[in-house]
């Protein structure tokens, strides 16, 4: 019967890892988009200055998309690691699935918020937090599925 237990501590640990990584990725994303904003709009002249806000918005969108895509491989790695410690397949799937799904949601919300809050004056056409909500939810769902699947694979490593 130990196979069916969900380990709440491990779910919390996985979610905390995702949130911390999300904060770090968000800070790096904010630095990169700030650099792009300075290069494409703030210090730009001529035609670059004219189209700068469009380029800035695209750089914020690209950074946000990259941040969200990175959650899925993280879910895979964490799923294998946590799943290798699970008591059984059902426990691995449920613990890793919930942990990586909730963790990826926290990761996405933290990272996207940091990137959006860092937007400067030239980012008037860039996305907001609400604009990224659906992709963040999709990322959490897919990360949860990947985490559950790789958690099951991790049970083989015992």
Automatic annotation (TrEMBL):
Keywords: Membrane, Transmembrane, Transmembrane helix. It comes from the Archaea. It comes from Halorubrum tebenquichense DSM 14210. This is Uncharacterized protein. The chain crosses the membrane at residues 12-35, 55-82, 89-117, 137-157.
């Amino acid at each position: 019967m130990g196979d069916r237990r969900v380990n709440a501590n491990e779910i919390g640990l996985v979610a905390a890892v995702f949130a911390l990584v999300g904060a770090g990725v968000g800070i790096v994303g904010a630095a990169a988009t700030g650099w792009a904003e300075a290069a494409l709009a703030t210090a730009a002249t001529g035609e670059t200055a004219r189209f700068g806000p469009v380029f800035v918005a695209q750089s914020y969108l690209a950074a946000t998309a990259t941040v969200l895509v990175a959650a899925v491989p993280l879910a895979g790695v964490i799923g294998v690691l946590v799943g290798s410690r699970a008591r059984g397949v059902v426990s691995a799937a449920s613990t890793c699935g919930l942990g990586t799904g909730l963790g990826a949601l926290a990761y996405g919300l933290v990272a996207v918020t940091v990137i959006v809050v860092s937007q400067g004056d030239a980012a008037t056409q860039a996305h907001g937090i609400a604009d990224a909500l659906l992709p963040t939810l999709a990322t959490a769902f897919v990360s949860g599925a990947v985490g559950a699947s790789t958690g099951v694979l991790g049970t083989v490593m015992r």
